Amino acid sequence: MTTLPNDTPAVIEARGLHKVFRDFWGRPKVRAVQDLTLEVRSGEIFGLLGPNGSGKSTTIKMLLGLLYPTSGELRVMGRSPRDAVTREHLGFMPEESYLYKYLTAQETLEFYAALGGLSGPARRKRVDEMIELMGLSGARHRRVGEFSKGMARRVGFAQALIHDPDLLLLDEPTSGLDPIGCRQVKDLILDLARRGKTILVCSHHLADMQDVCDRVAILLDGRVCAQGSVKDLVRQPDTWRVTLEGVDAALRDRLVTYLQEQCGRPVAVEPAGRSLEALFVDVVTRQRAANPPP
Amino acid sequence: MNLPRLIAIVGLTLRDAVRSRVVISLLAALLLVLVGLPLLVQSDGTPVGRLKIILEYALAAAIGLLSVATLWAGCATMAAELQDRRLFVVLAKPVRRWEIWVGKWLGIVLLDAAVLAVTGLVVAALVAAVRPTAGSDPQVEALLAGRDSYRPDWSASGLARPDPTAGGDNDKSPMKSVALLPGHSLDFTFPVSAIAPASPMELRARIGSSRPNRAPVESVWEFGPPGKPTSVISSTNAPGLSMTLAVPATAWSPTGVHVRLINQNERDPTTLVLATGPAGVELLVPRDGFAVNLTRGLLVVFARLAFLAALGVTAGCLLSLPVAVFVAAFVLVLIASAGYVQSVAVSGMYFIPMESDAPEVGWLDRVVLLLFKLMNTVTQPLNRLAPVPLLADGRRVAWTVVAQAAVLFGFAYSSVAALFGLWRFTRREVGRAGTD
Amino acid sequence: MTPRLMPFVGLTRLAFTELVRQPVCLLIALASVALSTALPLMIAHQLGQQGGLARDGALAFELTGGALLVAYAACSTLSREMRSGTILTILSRPIGRGTLFLAKFVAVALLVVLFVLCSACAALLAERLAPRYFETDWHGVRLLLVVPFAAFIPAALLNWRRGWNVTAWSWCFLVAALVVVTLALSRVDSEGHVGRLGEFLDWRLVPATVLIGAGLLILAAFALGLAAHLPLAPTVTILLVLLFASLLSGYLSQLTAHWPSVAATVRTLLPDLQRFWPDDDLVGDAPLGWRAVGLASLYGFVYTAGILCLGVAAFRNRQF
């Protein structure tokens, strides 16, 4: 995670954004987004969090030009989202894999590469790179309609990256992936950010968001109710976590007693352990190394 | 316009149609119709009868099927992709909406071209299978030749007597028939500037008589320069019915085909009445072979399919799939009813009043008639530019007809559909939950 | 209601609710009614037979419109659910596939009942509006033109005020408006003379439309069986081919007369939809009794049951 200087240019600027869905009679039916103001700066990983129906998907669709704001201002890389030129530097991975089931993985990526403006050897090279990156080499000539959800998500991610965009919009990128796949996606997101890409991520997997995002905004009922860097938001004032290694139980007890006397309040002690995800990845990796698949 | 993007969308449309087995199903259905219908529908057993079944029924049914399939494909390629959101990912790319519309339309048009080509080949193969040895059956050769129709130049014929029943000012109203007293003759000329060597022509006429019963009447036809006929044919036929005469090529001269009709009913005096209006006397002169004529006919059909594809894609942009198909099918039915719409618009009536009363034309009738007139302006060219009746009657589908079809359907009508579709599609929010 | 019947009733109600909310089902019914009642206006249908041509046309629209309706309804209620995966949420419950399949059929059958009701009114009105040679009852036509407004305006108002589904309520108001106009015109002849209720209508058309409706149920069973395996376009195509082949079964038998076993197979396998076409019975003033309808319906019931059994068996083996 990185902290960017305040003068870093904004890639996404939303000011006073409103989106109201109306019924057939023109009456407001749902106020999906209300007075949304946020900024996503170049090179950062920005998370959009919120419960179902909070306006995350509506915001993403407005950024893509699929929905039009009722009022307010929205600029993506300095242009209107409805401008096709804007999308030359934008990649989108939807929540579900809306793919053409009769195309193979290779044909799908070639199609999206062509739409992204790549042609000839550059397109072929880029498609091969994406297939390698997403681990789809064994399935490149299989029809996408036969893929499992995880494989389809990989194709979805690959098409978002195919034309090397500067801005990525990822809607639930880890949905449908196993923990190893999730770890790979998170590593990829971090790697892309290191290479200067700007990434806007929507996800319900808060642990994943905490691992990768620089800044987040929490939406509720279409409004931003919290926004800032992850570190600042999650920090509890005057509360610290201390990790002790190579400390036996007796020394531990003496340290705890000393701290309690100093702080004047109880001190919580727990054995430190790995996350379940780390354990899973470790077990599976070791098992695969010992018994490689045929 | 970015050509690689357009080509990518065209390629996707084609690939989707082929791999989803739509094309193969359509080809199978077309084959079933083209081959099956002539087997099901009983003809008179003659080669001409069997050929008419192929050209009039099977080809018409195949074109109808292809029209419906084109409409469906147009609606589905847009509406289905919007409904299941596959188009969202495409719209997230730097592609303009009009490029998507044009790419989808072009994909369907190319598919139509391929399927139409196969249809043409199958029809040609069926015709070749039914056709006797070339030249052995003049009636078959006449049906398969692309023939031009000529009407007599009545202004040069000084003996024509205007029809007293024509009504109104005879100088202005079109002549519908000419009466010929017993012993009299009528000279007229068909302005045929050239003919293919040794190709027989066909004269079609309708002759009425003054006899109260329906006894056959005799007529004598002389072909060739006046006074020096190269061919004389006597004909006896029932009055009022259409008759055909084979006119030898020797009847032609550089000044045209001269005809003298003689009323020799002197012993049993009968006035002959030769019909001269739109359904009256005409001369059919062979110009082209069947293959070329069929190709031109299919080009006209192709132009119509291009319009239907545009209609389907536009409907698919705006409506859900089943509603889009329904609306587009309604338009297709309207097009198929072009003849009825024209008859109402021209006659100004869609009902026949009781004989004793004057027609009661209220405000509702005026509104309905106005609607019919408006529909007629759109559908009338569709009625005029239908190639199947021409092919089934051995008439030439002229290049001018092909050009008119290309301009009207392929360009004008398609453009209107496209502009409307694009105008709405570019303004449409496609990301609304539940409806897209 | 017994616990065993509750899932069946629940599934039927859900499927029927979804069908009446489909705009296309309403559009098909509306088109069939509109075309049937427009026939008396067309010159060709005033040529003789005192409204007979209009009547026969209305019955033909009921048959073809009904075939399209059942094909679409079957695909909408089954094929689309299978493709979208929502059927898995039902099959994951303790509900047999046979129960599900039959519930869908009953829902489609209920839709056919609504359609037949509309078609009966349309046929009665078509003949009533073309009473004599070269005559159209224009006063009746003006009353008829009120029907679409009476169907859609209240439904739109309900949607505006309470947010109720406009399509479903349009069905209700359409049926009600047609029945009211039919009854109104049954009391008044084309010259404005008032008589008894029902005096000026040919009530034989009611059993005639019910007869056709019974035939449509056979097609509905076929459509559902096809929809379990095929999407919309092939289902509609095969159903229409089946419809026309069934109507031409006599002619097809003649064609295959040289191969008796083929002819016998054709006659046996194809449903004899000619039993459900009442046209010849309506010539002249001969009555068309409910007994004839009952006998044909019995044949239809047995045939439909057979097709449903095959459909259930095939659906049981369907993998998702």
Write the layout of secondary structure elements.
The complex is a heterotrimer of chains A (294), B (436) and C (320).
Chain A: E1 10-22, E2 28-41, E3 45-49, H1 56-64, E4 71-76, E5 90-93, H2 105-115, H3 120-133, H4 149-161, E6 167-171, H5 179-194, E7 198-202, H6 206-212, E8 215-220, E9 223-229, H7 230-234, H8 249-263, H9 276-290
Parallel strand pairs in A: 3-7, 3-8, 5-6, 6-7
Antiparallel strand pairs in A: 1-2, 1-4, 8-9
Helix pairs in contact in A: 2-3, 2-4
Chain B: H1 3-19, H2 22-40, H3 47-83, H4 86-91, H5 97-130, H6 138-144, E1 146-150, E2 177-180, E3 185-190, E4 201-209, E5 217-223, E6 231-237, E7 242-247, E8 252-253, E9 256-262, E10 272-275, E11 282-288, H7 290-318, H8 321-336, H9 338-347, H10 363-384, H11 388-392, H12 399-425
Antiparallel strand pairs in B: 1-11, 2-10, 3-9, 4-7, 4-10, 4-11, 5-6, 5-9, 8-9
Helix pairs in contact in B: 1-5, 2-3, 2-5, 3-5, 3-7, 3-8, 5-7, 5-12, 7-8, 7-12, 9-10
Chain C: H1 5-20, H2 23-38, H3 52-84, H4 86-91, H5 97-129, H6 138-144, H7 146-162, H8 166-187, H9 205-227, H10 232-247, H11 249-255, H12 260-269, H13 290-316
Helix pairs in contact in C: 1-5, 2-3, 2-5, 3-5, 3-9, 3-10, 5-8, 5-9, 5-13, 7-8, 9-10, 9-13, 11-12
Write a structural description.
The complex is a heterotrimer of chains A (294), B (436) and C (320). Chain A is 36% helix and 22% strand. Chain A is α/β, with parallel strands linked by helices and 294 residues long. Chain A folds into two domains: 10-234, P-loop containing nucleotide triphosphate hydrolases (Rossmann fold), CATH 3.40.50; 249-290, no CATH class. In chain A, the strands form two sheets. In chain A, strands 5-6-7-3-8-9 form a six-stranded mixed beta sheet, with helices on both faces. A three-stranded antiparallel beta sheet of chain A has the order 2-1-4, with helices on one face. In chain A, strand 8 and strand 9 (223-229) form a beta hairpin. The two termini of chain A are 38 Å apart. Chain B has 436 residues and is α+β, with helices and mostly antiparallel strands. Chain B has two domains: 3-134 and 289-336 and 385-425, no CATH class; 148-287, Jelly Rolls. In chain B, the strands form two sheets. In chain B, strands 1, 2, 4, 7, 10 and 11 form a six-stranded antiparallel beta sheet that branches. In chain B, helix 1 (3-19) crosses helix 5, helix 5 runs antiparallel to helix 7 (290-318) and helix 9 (338-347) packs across helix 10. Chain C is mainly α and 320 residues long. Chain C has one domain (5-316). Helix content of chain C is 73%, strand content 0%. In chain C, helix 2 runs antiparallel to helix 3 (52-84). Chain C is globular. In chain C, 45% of the residues are buried. Chains in contact: A-B, A-C, B-C.
